[in-house]
Design goal:
The structure holds 2 protein chains of 2 kinds. By secondary structure, chain A is of the alpha/beta class. Helices cover 49% and strands 15% of the residues of chain A. Chain A is built from 21 helices and 16 strands. Chain A is globular and about 90 Å long. By secondary structure, chain B is of the alpha/beta class. In chain B, the strands form 4 sheets. A 4-stranded parallel β-sheet of chain B has the order 3-2-4-5, with helices on both faces. A 4-stranded parallel β-sheet of chain B has the order 7-6-8-9, with helices on both faces. The longest helix of chain B has 18 residues. The chains are: A alpha/beta, B alpha/beta. The interface between A and B is large, with 67 and 83 residues.
Chain lengths: 508, 468
Amino acid sequence: MKLAYWMYAGPAHIGTLRIASSFKNVHAIMHAPLGDDYFNVMRSMLEREREFTPVTISVVDRNVLARGSQEKVVDNITRKDREETPDLIVLTPTCTSSILQEDLQNFVERAQLDSKGDVMLADVNHYRVNELQAGDRTLQQIVEFYINKARKKGELPEGKTEKPSVNIIGVSTLGFHNQHDCKELKRLMTDLGIEVNAVIPEGASVNELKNLSKAWFNLAPYRELGMMTVEYLQKEFDMPYVDITPMGVVETARCIRQIQKILNAQGANIDYESFIDNQTRYVSQAAWFSRSIDCQNLTGKKAVVFGDNTHAAAMTKILAREMGIHVVLAGTYCKYDADWFKEQVSEYCDEVLISNDNGEIGDAIARIEPSAIFGTQMERHVGKRLNIPCGVIAAPIHIQNFPIGYSPFMGYEGTNQIADLVYNSFTLGMEDHLLEIFGGHDTKEVITKGISADSDLNWSKEAKGELNKIPGFVRGKVKRNTEKFARDRDIGEITLEVMYAAKEAVGA
Amino acid sequence: MTAAQQEAPALNFECETGNYHTFCPISCVAWLYQKIEDSFFLVIGTKTCGYFLQNAMGVMIFAEPRYAMAELEEGDISAQLNDYEELKRLCDQIKRDRNPSVIVWIGTCTTEIIKMDLEGLAPKLEAEIGIPIVVARANGLDYAFTQGEDTVLAAMAHRCPQEAQVKEEEKGDRNAIQKLLNFGRKTEDVTAEESAHKAHPPLVLFGSLPDPVVTNLSLELKKQGINVSGWLPAKRYTELPVIEEGYYVAGVNPFLSRTATTLMRRRKCKLIGAPFPIGPDGTRAWIEKICSVFGIEPQGLEEREAAIWASMEDYLQLIRGKSVFFMGDNLLEVSLARFLIRAGMTVPEIGIPYMDKRYQKAELDLLAKTCQDMGVPAPTIVEKPDNYNQIQRIYDLKPDLVITGMAHANPLEARGINTKWSVEFTFAQMHGFTNARDILELVTRPLRRNNSLKDLGWDKLVKEEAVV
């Protein structure tokens, strides 16, 4: 047993559902107790999703436990197959129902007999992997399933697209700024003259998966989601992949150069150097920001970075290499992939921390006392308590990570967004600095509004206590209304009864 | 109440046993840890449980938390580890770090399935670490959403002291410091009690409500000369009310049937079965019922109710004649529907995860009578509804408002259907006369919002083919 106050990555089934519900016309059936389908709430609320989340829970309750769940699960799969005719139904248990040790594979086979669409059991160990690993695995499983299916039917296409083309792999629902990144990556590919053959899983149809092999290469911008798929495709079709996250000016250029190398190896004759130079020096504002006087003042400021592998590594490199900020500690919660992270960041920071214990990270921040933190919502909160500004750079996702406006982290527009994030995070520190120079904003004391000092009315102790329980922002209004009510009726002492009577009279 | 004697229309009950979304009952931790200030809640479950509390409930486990997960790992599931030793290690740490007055173990579906004997382990560990441990099985196999509170309160009902115990402990100064801190408050209570209370047997109310609502309802009863001798739960675990055989108890929420049963069967209390104090009609009926049990003639309630209705006229004008569909989520549905019908709305369907017809009898009777009084058809009450079927019915019925869980709100809004989150009613301060307006504030908000947007012509925000 582990005492846990906070989780950086969700349980496995969340990863599976993120993949399933990213695809178009794929439905997931959860075999789980009541309430375990909160993924629907997350997707609908956090992403402000307009469509009904294509996830249905097949409720496990006492009756089902007593009778066995096969009939119910099979019924629910075939029912959904009739109701919404999805191309694929993915069955997943949760941590809880996976310990029932039922033969879910058998349920799936049974259900397949009566279903028009495909039916599949997500092959994930719910106690050994987390959301990120499960998502990676489920995506690979679905891709493999459809490639095998096409192969069996002899429908696998031959050859490549005429022009250089790419599959962007790993963009999913409830991913950190994924929608914006995807748009930006598509734009970047267009600028590079590369056709986008497919984006998976977000918005993709499983029936198109057989065409993945037509692309010249795969791009896996996220370390957490897509690596298993690109490795599978490499093994299966000898497809090269680029796994350099195009975040920050330097890494974006490195990613583009890697793409160039891969394309030229396949006979394209292209040179992206002038594009990179033009983007870097004139189009993106980030390189200029690095040279600007604003950024000069950030030199040597101490920062702590913490997040998933993709974002923590990229951010560490940007801060250290592009902005001259001193990254004292870089950390990740992706313990299962710690070696990669260490290799990526060790030359850009003093310390590396691999942990998913928020207390350990909080303690490190308190010890280091950086000028700014770049972390998750948890570190933002730690920062609030320690009065250290924090820019949020990684999941666990929060509604604030679904801004309505365009804000990618990747590509050249991403570099601008990150520069803004860094600058705004440090501004508080800068303001402090200026305040020291100029002696503060305002030296006058704040005039607090006393409870009864400025009034001739007497508040009873209980009423005063009650008044204090009312949230601060309306307390003044309630107090004024109550006193007016009392004055109108010549009541000298405000008791609880008077307060409630006033509330009713005013109707607010 | 004489409602049952009149020929009210029969309510239709159905049980769809469908696939429906509601929150897991462990969500009760989110409000109970705030209510019981000296408690610590330990949820013994998996990552699935923890991530739910953290993300879907939006109750992020931030500064100075008083709840945590005991996250079960593979070794726990396969019984390679000793449950007692593991729980002892965790509870020792909680004691060291937070030193609460009580640790509440929340059992989950997983502890049910692996048959972890929490009730068996707790007494031994409690004796060893010297902190009371209350065990509640708030699992999704047996319960839905707000029923989690029911499991916790039912477990706590066993821990309410008896008069003799308290006297004994007071000699030993069980809470010397606590009493010192509460010194001022205690004396006030005493003076309050002196004022004009009529003689009646002790009354304990059960249900977790925010403190201002507790004060408000206690005050309403005080106006009738009734003294509330305690609330379950109290603000502190150390202040659980004294419960003796023969005490009267009354619930304030419709989802507390187990607590009611426990108080009756195990503590030999007498349950006052009344409609719930939600809406001015329900509040009046609740007070009247308590008065009638104590042989007290209620004073001024009719005028009071009328005055509240009159003060809400501006909101009532917005909802009169409109229909509201409850998809079912928090078990407050019947009480809210009854109030909204009295307010002039019609209700075609009340979805509800679980319906205890005995504990809710007075409420159901009042619902039937209200339908009769208002001349509207009685709603169909659908237990364990099927959300997919409900959505088809919503498309057919085109209700003016759908009160629904969070999973369906945005998609329905995108199809031009007004919605309100049911969970807001769970957290709103809506009990009693004074707060009735706040219920209508919530109910009318989508109507007011969409009124102000209606000229824009944007009511449907999904492409046509997406509407089934």
